[in-house]
Design goal:
The chain has 463 residues and is of the alpha/beta class. Helix content is 34%, strand content 22%. The chain folds into three domains: 7-97, NAD(P)-binding Rossmann-like Domain (Rossmann fold, 3-Layer(aba) Sandwich), CATH 3.40.50.720; 100-312, Mur-like, catalytic domain (UDP-N-acetylmuramoyl-L-alanine:D-glutamate ligase, 3-Layer(aba) Sandwich), CATH 3.40.1190; 322-461, Mur ligase, C-terminal domain (Protein-Tyrosine Phosphatase, Chain A). The chain has 15 helices and 20 strands. The strands form three sheets. A nine-stranded mixed β-sheet has the order 6-7-5-8-9-10-11-12-13, with helices on both faces. Strand 11 and strand 12 (260-265) form a beta hairpin. The radius of gyration is 23 Å and the shape is globular.
């Protein structure tokens, strides 16, 4: 835990007592703050009270007594309308911040020079975050991984000079971190997302820009118009900017050329790394992730040799294009995190012959946007509520069966792939659907897939 000492002996209001909210409240108390916490869920309030946290209805207190208001990132700050606590904080002139802001203040107070890499973007941020942490850790550095990737940032070990922090930041977290100042800040890409919470694409992009605007080194993907403009503004403001690209060569920066990551300086490009043969970094989207990770690690002093070793040993992000088993020429891939068609596209683009397990609780639009990948699919195995609709979309374009259950789909796909004479094929769970019709969440679904693969005779597990 990181005790939040910067609010010692001061009163702090807090709303939102889920996992990260409760961790934040405990960190504030550990640092000596006087916390008044609340949540719309009575069970969460009771749990906080049992943990020794002061609780009380924030509608009935004097807000002028608070030095700050800590808001959970899951609670609306601006859109579709501010939460009632936000209105009360504004009326009293109380600053509104989140757990990432508390972390950066503690870092500045206790170890301002410790390396801190922050990552954001619409797509790819979790893989990039995990890859950076793996490179740092495998090179022998004390590495702390947290943020939006699933570990509350204030549950990490306290800042110290030789401790490296790798923190994934959502737009919600950035919006609550006005003084975010990483050593290296990464903005991968921007496409419309979470506009119900940000109101417009321009506002969403402006929030994301804050992360690199406050960075010592700004690492910015420049494959879309928003991020290209953000990189230019950061350079004009005097920031050190490293541009990265996955779709075009650059005169300065890092870019993808097939599986190779090129480093361009003064218009001359040389090979920095080659991802060929690294199963966990297949696909052009992962070339962008790797380029960002390389740039970040170089900026905090990691050697090229250590970076290359970390890339080659990267185990992948669980449930995201994760090779989990192999039998002969068949690889089994867990892409359970692909809960809509757009999320399934990277995995489908990365293999040439696929036995595709798809379905679950359908999302709007179905799988029609995946039609360009249908020629890669040897056969589809459809499960869950989406099976009839997916079958109608596939029609004559792709052979399919309605397997119904994941267990049956894995067994049938493995048997069919075993007869395939292709040099390599993939049995892939990339469902393009939510899991909730059959599983609690995509993690449980992915774990079930791994279990079914492990039960197949002759499979060598890779995890």
């Amino acid at each position: 835990m990181i005790p939040v000492t910067t609010f010692k002996d001061r009163q702090v209001a807090l709303f939102g007592l889920g996992g990260s909210g409760l961790a934040t409240a405990l960190a504030l108390v550990a640092g000596g703050a006087r916390v008044m916490a609340w949540d719309d869920n009575p069970d969460s309030v009771a749990k906080a009270a049992d943990a020794g946290i002061g609780t009380g209805d924030l509608r009935k207190v004097d807000w002028t007594a608070f030095s700050a208001f800590v808001l959970s990132p899951g609670v609306p700050l601006t859109h579709p309308k501010p939460h009632w606590t936000v209105d009360l904080a504004h009326a009293a002139g109380v600053e509104i911040i989140g757990d990432v802001e508390l972390f950066v203040r503690e870092r500045r107070a206790h170890a301002p020079d410790c390396p801190f890499i922050a990552i954001t973007g619409t797509n790819g941020k979790s893989t990039t975050t995990a890859l950076i942490a793996h490179i740092l850790k495998s090179s022998g550095r004390d590495t702390q991984l947290g943020g939006n990737i699933g570990t509350a940032v204030l549950t990490l070990d306290p800042p110290s000079p030789d401790r490296f922090y790798v923190v994934e930041c959502s737009s919600y977290q950035i919006d609550l971190a006005p003084t975010l100042d990483p050593s290296a800040g990464i903005l991968l890409n921007l496409t419309p997302d979470h506009l119900d919470r940000h109101g417009s694409m321009d506002h969403y992009a402006a929030i994301k820009e804050r992360l690199v605007a406050g960075s010592d080194t700004a690492i910015v993907g420049v494959d879309d118009i928003y991020t290209e403009a953000i990189a230019d503004r950061a350079a004009l403001a005097g920031r050190r900017v490293i541009r990265i690209a996955r779709h075009r060569p650059l005169g300065e920066g890092l870019f993808a050329d097939g599986t190779r990551i090129m480093r361009a300086e003064g218009g001359l490009a040389t090979v920095l790394a080659d991802l060929d043969g690294i199963a966990t970094l297949r696909g052009n989207h992962n070339a962008q992730n790797a380029a960002a990770a390389i740039a970040a690690c170089l900026s905090v002093g990691v050697s090229e040799g250590d970076i290359l070793a970390g890339l080659s040993s990267f185990p992948g992000l669980k449930h995201r294009m994760q090779p989990v088993g192999r039998k002969g020429n068949v690889v089994f891939v867990n892409d359970s995190k692909a809960t809509n068609a757009d999320a399934a596209a990277p995995a489908l683009s990365s293999y040439d012959r696929i036995y595709w397990i798809a379905g679950g609780l359908p999302k709007e639009g179905g799988i029609t946007t995946l039609a360009p990948f249908f020629p890669k699919i040897a056969k589809a195995y459809l499960i869950g509520e989406a099976a009839p609709a997916f079958a109608a979309t596939l029609r004559e374009a792709v052979p399919f069966e309605i397997s119904g259950t994941l267990e049956r789909a894995v067994a049938h796909a493995a048997a069919d792939a075993a007869k395939d004479e292709a040099a390599q094929s993939a049995v892939m769970l990339s469902p393009a659907c939510a899991s909730f019709d059959q599983y609690k969440n995509f993690e449980v679904r992915g774990d079930a897939f791994v279990g079914h693969v492990a039960a197949i005779d002759g499979v060598t597990m890779l995890i």
